[in-house]
Amino acid sequence: KQWYQRRVRASPNIIFIFADDLGSADVGYVGSDIRTPNVDMLARSGVILDQHYVQPMCSPSRSAFITGRFPVHTGFQNGNVQQGELWGLSLNEFTVAEMFQEYGYKTHAVGKWHLGWRTWRHTPIHRGFDSFLGFYFCAHDHFQYNCGNLKKGTEKKGDRRRREKRGGLARIQGGGKR
């Protein structure tokens, strides 16, 4: 047990930033006019993986990242999980978060999941993350809490409540499994 405790204390902190639609020249540390001082600081003190390529859609890229497998092997070769669809990342897939937990790490996810939420077992808390703050699907407005292409003022009465029941709004998970 003492060896394990020493190993956990010596383990480095690891932060993965997975950003959709981020261009290869959209951060300051590559010479962009876009100011990104916090990302630049993280890049200078960490490892920059700049020769890794993604799929042209969110869900396939995320499934590849979280499992370490090509999307054709995770069922995501045909595109994104759409809101209301009853499929997602197979419960048989081992995730990078589960691997980190096995090594004693605390794991947290912030942002967009977009790997399905057919059941609670498909959500981040049950896929190796100790906590999750974010959205289950794509195209959310983080300020108006609109989903998809809805524009402020275009929702009908009751739309938000129905969407919240389907998982459209930001949720916080953690502090115990459902």
Q: What do you see in this structure?
A:
Helices cover 24% and strands 8% of the residues. By secondary structure, the protein is of the alpha+beta class. A three-stranded mixed β-sheet has the order 1-2-3, with no helix packed on it.
Mean pLDDT: 78
Share of helix, binned: 10-25%
The count of DSSP E runs of length 2 or more, i.e. the number of strands, is 3
Radius of gyration: 18 Å
Strand coverage percent: 5-15%
Biggest pleated sheet: 3 strands, mixed
Secondary structure tally, helices:
5
Report the span from N to C terminus.
30 Å
Structural class: alpha+beta
Strand and helix order: HHHHEEHE
Topology:
Blueprint: H1 2-10, H2 37-45, H3 58-67, H4 96-102, E1 108-112, E2 131-135, H5 159-166, E3 171-174
